[in-house]
Amino acid sequence: MQTRAEKAAAVAEGLVAGALERLADYVAIPAVSSQPERYDDVRRMADVAAADLREAGLDNVEVITVEGALPCVRADKIVDPDQPTVLIYGHFDQQPFEPELWDSPPNTLTQRGERLYGRGS
Q1: How many degrees, rounded to 5, is the angle at CA 16 between CA 71 and CA 55?
Q2: What angle (nearest 5°) sits at the alpha carbon of residue 74, between those of residues 117 and 51?
Q3: Which of 3, 10, 64, 75 is the most exposed place for a label (fewest CB within 10 A)?
Q4: How far apart are CA 51 and CA 40, in angstroms?
Q5: Helix (H, G, I), strand (E, B), or coil: what is residue 117?
Q6: Residue 29 CB burial class (10 angstroms; 0-12, 13-18, ≥19)
Q7: In angstroms, how far is the first alpha carbon of the chain from the final one?
Q8: Global pTM?
Q9: pLDDT, tens digit, for every residue of 51-79?
Q10: What SS3 class is residue 26?
Q11: Hey, where are the domains in the chain?
């Protein structure tokens, strides 16, 4: 019979495995915002990020588009309006890269030792 700690560790391992799979999905999208030929990938990444925020239970998730600009994603989760607000900011695009300078494919999440490698990781 598993102890509570063993059960918690098993759950945590499952969450980490799922997070790594999702990170691999993100890295696989070559969303290079400075390259017009990759704008559709940036838009796809915005849609994927928005879907993940919805799945995580956030509210008012939207992909904001403005003519002539790449999209951004916003969401909120108001648990208690009387409590302080926490703002989380990040980006989902990548910078240009030269694949020949990589030891592994840049858009494939690769683990070497305790480190992860891949564009956007």
Answers
A1: 40
A2: 65
A3: 3
A4: 17
A5: strand
A6: buried
A7: 37
A8: 0.82
A9: 999 999 999 999 999 999 999 999 999 99
A10: helix
A11: 4-117
